[in-house]
Amino acid sequence: MRERLARREFVRGALCAGMARMLPSFPPPDTLRAHAEARGLLVGCAVVPEKLRGEPIYAETVAEQENLLVAENAMKWQALHPAPHRYDFAPADTILAFADAHQQRVRGHNLCWHQALPDWFHSMVTKDNAKQVLTEHICTVAGHYAGRLHSWDVVNEAIEPKDGRPDGLRKSPWLMLLGPEYIDIAFRTARRADPKALLTYNDYGIELDTPEQTEKRRRVLDLVRGMKKRGVSIDAVGVQSHLTAGEQRPGNGLRDFVRELRKMDMQVFITELDVSDHKLQGAPAERDKLVGSLYGDYLRMMLAEPNVTAVLTWGITDKYTWLNHEHGRSDGQPQRPLPFDAEYHPMPAFYAMREAIDARRTT
Ligand code: G3I
After folding, report:
1. What is the DSSP string of 172-200?
2. Where are the domains of the chain?
3. 203 CB under 6 A from ligand 1?
4. For residue 129, is the peptide bond before it cis, meaning its omega torsion is within 30 degrees of 0?
5. Å from CA of 73 to ligand 1 middle
6. What are residue 202's phi and psi, to 5 degrees?
7. Is the per-residue pLDDT at 6 higher than 70?
8. CATH code at 2-358
9. What pTM was computed for the model?
10. For ligand 1, is residue 116 a contact (CB within 6 Å)?
11. Which of 47, 108, 151, 310 lies in disulfide reach of 42, CB 3.0 to 4.6 Å?
């Protein structure tokens, strides 16, 4: 027992010091990361730089379990571009340094979105300067990380059929300022600034077979087809995958969508997976089982498709899930949507992820 504890302390010390490659068996064989690497898959989560620096068990879990990281907030405009002529890369750079120390890849999230814009944006950006502001931001940010990122979410959540436009585009500030062309501008600029990152269109609400989500998927395919026709390079679609237990499950519509993208040579990333339990009653252990079963069904279906090459959860521990802030349970109990609970114990979702990864064909 004393030996095991001593080894654990040694491993933790080495991980925190970024010396993973010196450890005898890294990643440990029972981790998501080890199982994914055996199958050539990327598995990851959204991270918060302050926790990587300040909470050893958080850092240790992320180092052991993941080989792909994405900033939950640290690469958004609000965080990186606090004043018109000032950028602050320090917190986001922490993620890159952590990833380098633990042989992990990093995704960028995101270069163009209707949310998380800094306050100055609304008072200073006009139709006359919007193109310059957008391209300058993308050149600076994608340029800063050029050659180091696995992929960029270049445009996030640009489609919203409910907004009632004939082209299905969201009435975002970017659309109002620049028209539909803003999407091509963003992708072309990103490609120039970082020729190596896989350029991704990322969206939510495209997982289920409801009429709304079926329509949204159709619009995403139209968008990708249109971009390809216009010679705008795009490599991947991110399916966010914020799912809810106790409602309709993803099915054939999403599977066909992934296959359609494959015909266009597009990869698919599961970019923000979590399973909200706010519709479930019962004791935590019963809810956890249902959450885990949705993880398993979903990932088995998606990972059977060869162009699905990466799976990221939106956080690693229930302790910090965004769902408690935006979709709290009506009984006031905390949500349990992620692979590790608030004390960093593996949940049924963790085991379901690992089994689904194991079921992935390697050929
Ligand atoms: O950092 C400030 C802090 O200084 C301040 O005291 C506090 C007071 O509200 O706010 C903090 O900022 C919050 C930030 O999260 C960091 O915690 C923002 O208010 C809050 O709006 C922000 O929410 C994030 C949201 O995107 C909007 O950017 C969530 O954490 C993040 O999980 C969520 O992630 C999005 C993806 O980017 C896109 N897909 C959907 C997903 C979930 O909404």
Report:
1. -HHHHHH-TTHHHHHHHHHHHH-SSSEEE
2. 2-358
3. no
4. no
5. 6
6. -120, 135
7. no
8. 3.20.20.80
9. 0.95
10. yes
11. 310
